[in-house]
């Protein structure tokens, strides 16, 4: 996408945390770059502990990166001060993972949804009730719930309240940190479909963080795969799912259940290495079936790999273009590679071999 169309750009973000006295530091996010365009949806997936939630908190300003930059509409979030920082914070809001702890139990629904309007002074007292009713209707809740408290609602209804609060300031980007993982299976699809519908109606861009690969494919235009604080692969959703070029991505997809398919591939052996002492070179190499040569010494950079895709079948209804922005500030990666081809970026020394020998 053209650089001017990018609402949110993160460049070389790094964040570490103390592991305790004398135990070193945990590298939660290490050199991650990505971008999101207006009205676009970007999925971020990976195993627990890969740094997804820390990345989300940095994007909305709840965590300060140790290094790197975050720009919102071309302005640096880290260096903004006063009124400018307040304005930038309005443009990017968050839907939290746990609807049970993200809502203040002492406040009514009306007060919860109206809180951003009060803090940012965007709506007068006389108009506030009408705006709250409008937001509740937008997420499928009746206006008469304003006087009730969070404990009187189900998990799915609480998440709808959280979404209404996040939309109160009409943000350009909505960061959703595993918004359905704490919900019952029966209501997960309802919340996911609500987010898709809201994106189409409001034009808000989504950063959708999840570990459920099927949900990400349903919601997102592009996807980025994280492993131990770094990006392993990023690109158009269809390209990454149909032709994964990183052994870790292949292992994730092979482990995901698919109705009617007998699983033929095994998940990678062993557990992820400690983020306190990550392995040198490619961080996936201790578990990778293709590890050889430079893998245990040289860190692979994200590089563009052209992938040939089959035409979308009528049953999938896919209307995604072949070209895409590869996920970082690299405008050259946004062009299509040619008829039937799509580009995506992979941090693997053996990406071509991985494409030739998929995991199953």
Describe what you observe in this structure.
The strands form 2 sheets. The chain has an 8-stranded mixed β-sheet, with helices on both faces. A 4-stranded antiparallel β-sheet has the order 2-1-4-5, with helices on one face. The model is unreliable at 313-340 (pLDDT under 50). The chain is an alpha/beta fold and 360 residues long. It has 2 domains: 3-220, P-loop containing nucleotide triphosphate hydrolases (Rossmann fold, 3-Layer(aba) Sandwich); 240-356, no CATH class. It has helices spanning 52-59, 82-91, 109-120, 125-138, 155-167, 185-202, 213-219, 237-242, 247-255, 351-356, and strands at 6-18, 25-37, 41-45, 67-72, 75-76, 92-95, 173-177, 205-209, 222-227, 230-236, 303-308, 341-346. Residues 299-344 are annotated as: Disordered.
Shape field: globular
Whole-number mean pLDDT: 86
Label the structural class. alpha/beta
Supply Rg.
21 Å
Top keywords for this entry?
360 residues, 4-stranded antiparallel sheet, alpha/beta, single chain, 22% strand
């Amino acid at each position: 996408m053209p650089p001017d169309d990018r609402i949110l750009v993160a460049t070389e973000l790094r964040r570490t945390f103390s592991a305790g006295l004398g135990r070193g530091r945990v590298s939660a996010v290490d050199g991650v770059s990505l971008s999101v365009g207006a009205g676009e949806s970007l999925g971020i997936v990976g195993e627990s502990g890969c740094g997804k939630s820390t990345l989300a908190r940095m994007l909305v300003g709840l965590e300060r990166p140790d290094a790197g930059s975050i720009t919102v509409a071309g302005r640096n979030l880290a260096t903004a001060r006063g009124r400018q920082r307040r304005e930038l914070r309005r443009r990017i809001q968050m839907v939290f993972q746990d609807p049970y702890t993200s809502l203040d139990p002492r406040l009514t629904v009306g007060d919860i949804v109206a809180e951003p309007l009060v803090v940012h002074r965007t709506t007068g007292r006389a108009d506030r009730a009408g705006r709250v009713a409008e937001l509740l209707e937008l997420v499928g809740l009746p206006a008469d719930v304003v006087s009730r408290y969070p404990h009187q609602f189900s998990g799915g209804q609480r998440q709808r309240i959280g979404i209404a609060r996040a939309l109160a300031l009409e943000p350009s980007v909505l960061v959703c940190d595993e918004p359905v993982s704490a919900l019952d299976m029966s209501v997960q699809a309802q919340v996911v479909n609500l987010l898709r519908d809201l994106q189409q109606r409001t034009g808000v861009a989504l950063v959708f963080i999840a570990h459920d690969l099927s949900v990400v494919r349903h919601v997102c235009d592009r996807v980025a795969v994280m492993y131990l604080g770094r990006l392993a692969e990023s690109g158009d959703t269809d390209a990454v799912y149909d032709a994964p070029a990183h052994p870790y991505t292949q292992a994730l997809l092979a482990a995901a259940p698919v109705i009617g398919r007998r699983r033929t591939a095994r998940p990678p052996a062993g557990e992820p290495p400690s983020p306190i002492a990550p392995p040198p070179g490619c961080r996936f190499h201790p578990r990778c079936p293709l590890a050889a040569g430079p893998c245990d010494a040289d860190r692979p950079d994200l590089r563009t790999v052209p992938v040939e895709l089959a035409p979308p079948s009528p049953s999938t209804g896919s209307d995604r273009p072949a070209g895409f922005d590869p996920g970082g500030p690299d405008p050259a990666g946004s062009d299509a590679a040619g008829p039937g081809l799509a580009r995506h970026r992979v941090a693997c020394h053996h990406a071509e071999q991985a494409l030739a020998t998929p995991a199953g």
